[in-house]
Design a protein that fits this description.
It is a single chain. By secondary structure, the chain is mainly α. It has a single domain, classed as Up-down Bundle (Rhomboid-like fold). Helix content is 55%, strand content 6%. It contains ten helices and five strands. The strands form two sheets. It has a three-stranded mixed beta sheet. Strands 1-2 form a two-stranded antiparallel ribbon. Helix 1 crosses helix 2, helix 6 crosses helix 9 and helix 7 packs antiparallel against helix 8. The N and C termini lie far apart (69 Å). The mean pLDDT is 83.
């Protein structure tokens, strides 16, 4: 009888677009396209639907009502005031998640999706999709809670995936602390742990000083802090194939 050769399984290369990352990218791009259509065509029902997904702090309804009575218009996700009849004012429970799929402009979504993909794919490859998905949305909700506490009653909506992205950056810094990240601005390499610590310090300074108008600095910090809750399972650095990372620092 011929000798049977042992079967050898080839190890699959990890995908550059694991399931959760891929789906988050697709959904965010589709929603941003819907925002663009709603804004350029002034389609009332689309503006109303999308605005209902932005994060309005509890207590903002009274302020929005006063603005509507005074001028007939209120702030929306589109960067300018709109007729109050088109906007669903006030806090709604679903907003602690849906706000993360809305973005203010093209740069906002590009930077968030790039950082989410660049750093998040390596974490999802290590943890698996289910665990990473839970982690990401814990950070999104944590960022929302921080924002509504800081901005309680403010009639200005919050939007963007940055809270979840900051949680992803925290996890990356804890898992790959010695990994070098090449910044674009300024173009210097820095270890992941120092990058995360420095970014957190800058966000705290900007939030306290009020130096970044229109940026939800405390939401970013809230997302990172929320990431500590599930991340406490095992803070040891992960062992994974080295990848070059490029981060935009501004």
């Amino acid at each position: 009888m011929p000798e049977r050769q042992p079967l050898h399984r080839t190890q699959r290369q990890p995908s550059a677009f694991p399931p959760v990352i891929k789906n988050l990218l697709i959904i965010n791009v589709l929603v941003f396209f819907a925002q663009f259509v709603a804004e350029t065509t002034s389609t009332g029902w689309m503006i109303q639907l999308l605005s209902a997904g932005a994060l309005y702090p509890p207590g903002s309804g009274d302020a929005l009502a006063a603005m509507a009575q005074a001028s007939g218009q209120v702030p929306t996700i589109f960067g300018r005031a709109r007729p109050a009849a088109l906007v669903m004012p006030g806090f709604q429970p679903w907003q602690v998640v849906t706000y993360a799929f809305l973005h203010a402009d093209l740069f906002h979504i590009l930077i968030n999706m790039y950082v989410l993909w660049m750093f998040g794919m390596q974490i999802e490859q290590q943890w698996g999709s289910r665990r990473f998905g839970v982690y990401f949305f814990v950070c999104v909700i944590g960022a929302a809670l921080a924002q509504v506490l800081i901005r309680w009653g403010a009639p200005v909506p919050t939007l963007g995936a940055s809270g979840g992205v900051f949680g992803v950056l925290l996890a990356f810094g804890m898992m790959f602390p010695e990994r070098r990240i090449m910044l674009l601005f300024p173009p210097i390499p820095i270890k992941a742990k120092w990058f995360v610590i420095g970014l957190g310090a800058l966000e705290l300074f900007a939030g306290v000083s009020g130096g970044q108008s229109g940026v939800a600095n405390f939401a970013h910090l809230g997302g990172a802090l929320a990431g500590l809750l599930p991340e406490t399972h095992n803070p040891r650095p992960a062992t994974a194939p080295s990848r070059n990372c490029v981060a935009v620092f501004r």
